[in-house]
């Protein structure tokens, strides 16, 4: 572990004056401007103004006034190599040149030493770093001057102090990242790799905050020191992480590494103190794309495997309960299955955490790319077995499944970020089929038992209310067996039942067993259909259905039966066809044939209008109904 003891001390107070002449420059004589005052009968003591203190190079060096010392050396260099002839400088001043060279080497070492302590300076010691940076800039300017001159430069030109500055900071960063400070608290919950990454990340954050908080003030703006340091730390951390990745990682270490690359590191750079000073865009990712993709693919494969394993276990437990003849759990009197809740929580957790680990929600969606096969196909197969075998507890399980189907559908529609669009559509298609097969399984026995009442619809006996009342009573009685689903699922089931009963009602009516020969019979049929529609809908509302639109279909059919004028009949057919575009010519002909006083030409005129309507099209959102009504 590193113990930071670096720092710069013993700076000369900033009020001192610095001379930039020769080392032993004589002091200027003092000037006496005092006057005598005779107010007390004797002259006042003579007062002298303080004289500026002119430091020698050695004094500046000892006080670590690096830029001032550097300037003196540059001035000496100028005298030796510019003011004197070149031959004189080397021939007659060899001793001075060697001394200058030695002084420059000593100053260079001290400047680099100061730069090497940049990140562990106290606030009151930053002046020394400022002076070191200024010395570097002076040397860079002097290098440029010699480059522009048509004269042989000294042997130390170009000095390359800027490159030395950069390499010194790089060495500093590497040393701090290789030996990061360790928190006092134990990291017993972390693996060795996780602890190493955490310590490097912590060191990076602390040092960058130190750079923007203090070190930045020691540099001129054009050096862009904050971005320079961020680049050094980025490259150093990147190299370390690549070495770690090359060892081969276990799952939890791989996940931790990816999370540092895609979440924690970007969060550090996004801190307000750093974000305002560091442009993180050019830094890019901590790992090269090839290595990052390999790690992400391994991670995703592992996550997919875990998801599939847990889904299989959840469905397996549900199947086992059914095989044993157990009943599903109940909640508020409704059958309940934990399948949907458990799997949805699992999927949401996996995708949410993977989004952080991968730093990309679209990549995280790949976890669910096999969900239609791993989950939906297995779940559909389980439900098919439950229906096919029709055990004593099968109806209870199907009622519980309806709620699961609803939960899955809601997640697919509302939480679209969890799935790709193809997966989402495939899953919804499977769920729609499952819901329909579940409804059919639950409702088919009821329709079988209601067949005697269905047969009387559309017959002469049907015109008597007592016959239809038998159907209502049968629906009410048989419907009790459909209780047990959650409230929302029961409403949908009752809505489906109301639609199927309405379809059967219209199908029986269009079979044409009753003949309405005159206005009185047609009015009687109108009143019967209208009354049937109201009573049927009232019953289903009580049972939980919310499909109000089904009543309106029967009302519109009743209107056709009542109307006598052909134009009015044609208009009603148009309205019916507008609301329900799946109304076919066969349906219209079957309906109009009930009115035996209409001629074949009358019926054709109505269907022609319907055909014209089809060509014009409609801007309304249509419902499907008549496509379910089979007519010959």
What multimeric state do the chains show?
A: single chain
The CATH homologous superfamily of the largest domain is termed Exocyst complex component Sec6, C-terminal domain
For the secondary structure, the number of strands is: 2
Helix amount: 55-70%
Using the CA coordinates, give the radius of gyration: 46 Å
Unreliable spans are 1-41
Instruction: Please provide the ordered H/E string of secondary-structure elements.
Output: HHHHHHHHHHHEEHHHHHHHHHHHHH
Top-tier CATH class of the largest domain: Mainly Alpha
Largest sheet: spatial strand order:
1-2
Structural class: mainly alpha
Q: What is the count of structural domains?
A: 4
Q: What's the average pLDDT? A: 88
Total of DSSP H or I helical runs spanning 4+ residues: 24
Please tell me what the overall shape is.
elongated
CATH-defined fold name of the largest domain = Tetracycline Repressor, domain 2
CATH architecture title of the largest domain: Orthogonal Bundle
Q: In percent, how much strand structure appears in the residues?
A: under 5%
Task: Throw out a few tags for this protein.
single chain; mainly alpha; Tetracycline Repressor, domain 2; 4 domains; 24 helices; 2 strands; 1% strand; EXOC3/Sec6; Tumor necrosis factor alpha-induced protein 2-like isoform X2; EXOC3/Sec6_C; SNARE binding
What does this protein look like?
Residues 18-48 are annotated as: Disordered. Belongs to the SEC6 family. This is Tumor necrosis factor alpha-induced protein 2-like isoform X2. The chain folds into 4 domains: 57-176, no CATH class; 180-287; 292-438, Tetracycline Repressor, domain 2; 457-628, Tetracycline Repressor, domain 2, CATH 1.10.357.70. It has a two-stranded antiparallel ribbon. Strand 1 and strand 2 (334-336) form a beta hairpin. The two termini are 91 Å apart. It is mostly helical and 632 residues long. The chain contains 24 helices and 2 strands. Helix 2 (66-83) runs antiparallel to helix 4 (94-115), helix 15 (394-414) packs antiparallel against helix 16 (421-449) and helix 20 (519-543) packs antiparallel against helix 21 (549-562).
């Amino acid at each position: 572990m590193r113990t930071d003891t670096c720092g710069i001390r013993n700076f000369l107070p900033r009020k001192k004056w610095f001379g930039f002449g020769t080392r032993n420059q004589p002091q200027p004589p003092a000037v006496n401007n005092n006057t005598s005052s005779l107010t007390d009968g004797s002259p006042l003591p003579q007062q002298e103004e303080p004289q500026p203190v002119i430091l020698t190079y050695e004094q500046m060096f000892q006080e670590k006034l690096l830029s001032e010392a550097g300037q003196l050396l540059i001035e000496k260099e100028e005298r030796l190599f510019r003011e004197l002839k070149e031959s004189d400088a080397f021939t007659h001043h060899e001793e001075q040149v060697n001394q200058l060279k030695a002084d420059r080497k000593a100053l260079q070492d001290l400047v680099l030493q100061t730069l090497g302590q940049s990140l562990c300076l106290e606030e009151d010691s930053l002046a020394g770093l400022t002076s070191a940076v200024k010395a570097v800039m002076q040397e860079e300017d002097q290098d440029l001057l010699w480059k522009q001159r048509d004269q042989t430069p000294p042997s130390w030109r170009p000095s390359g102090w800027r490159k030395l500055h950069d390499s010194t900071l790089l060495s500093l960063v590497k040393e701090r990242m290789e030996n990061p400070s360790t928190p006092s608290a134990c990291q017993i919950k972390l693996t060795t790799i996780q602890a190493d990454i955490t310590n490097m990340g912590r060191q990076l954050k602390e040092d960058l905050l130190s750079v923007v908080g203090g070190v930045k003030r020691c540099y001129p703006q054009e050096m862009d020191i904050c971005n320079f340091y961020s680049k050094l730390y980025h490259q150093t951390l990147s190299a370390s992480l690549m070495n770690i990745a090359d060892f081969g990682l276990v799952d939890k270490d791989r996940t931790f590494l990816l999370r540092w690359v895609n979440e924690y590191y970007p969060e550090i750079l996004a801190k307000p103190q750093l974000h305002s000073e560091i442009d993180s865009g050019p830094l890019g990712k901590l790992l090269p794309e090839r290595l990052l993709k390999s790690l992400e693919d391994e991670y995703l494969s592992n996550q997919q495997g875990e998801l599939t394993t847990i889904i299989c276990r959840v469905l397996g437990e549900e199947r086992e309960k059914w095989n044993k003849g157990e009943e599903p759990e109940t909640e508020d009197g409704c059958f309940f299955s934990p399948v949907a809740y458990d799997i949805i929580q699992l999927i949401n957790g996996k995708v949410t955490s993977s989004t952080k680990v991968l730093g990309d929600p679209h990549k995280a969606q790949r976890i669910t790319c096999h969900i239609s096969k791993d989950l939906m196909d297995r779940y559909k197969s389980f439900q098919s077995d439950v229906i096919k075998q029709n055990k004593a507890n099968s109806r209870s399980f199907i009622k519980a499944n309806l709620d699961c189907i609803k939960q899955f559908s809601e997640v697919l529609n509302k939480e679209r970020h969890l799935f790709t669009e193809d997966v989402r559509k495939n899953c919804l298609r499977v769920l729609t089929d499952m819901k329909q097969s579940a409804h059919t399984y639950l409702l088919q026995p009821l329709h079988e038992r209601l067949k005697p009442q269905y047969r009387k619809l559309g017959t002469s006996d049907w015109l008597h209310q007592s016959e239809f009342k038998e159907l209502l009573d049968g629906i009410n009685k048989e419907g009790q067996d459909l209780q047990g689903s959650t409230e929302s699922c029961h409403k949908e089931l009752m809505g489906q039942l109301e639609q199927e009963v309405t379809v059967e009602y219209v199908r029986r009516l269009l079979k044409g067993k009753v003949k309405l020969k005159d206005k009185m019979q047609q009015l009687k049929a109108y009143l019967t259909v209208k009354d049937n529609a109201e009573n049927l809908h009232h019953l289903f509302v009580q049972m939980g259905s919310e499909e109000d639109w089904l009543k309106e279909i029967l009302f519109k059919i009743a209107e056709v039966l009542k109307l006598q004028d052909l134009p009015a009949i044609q208009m009603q057919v148009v309205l019916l066809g507008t609301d329900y575009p799946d109304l076919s010519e066969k349906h219209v002909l079957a309906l109009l044939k009930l009115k035996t006083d209409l001629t074949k030409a009358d019926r054709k005129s109505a269907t022609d209008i319907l055909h014209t309507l089809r060509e014009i099209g409609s801007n309304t959102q249509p419902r499907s109904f008549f496509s379910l009504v089979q007519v010959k």
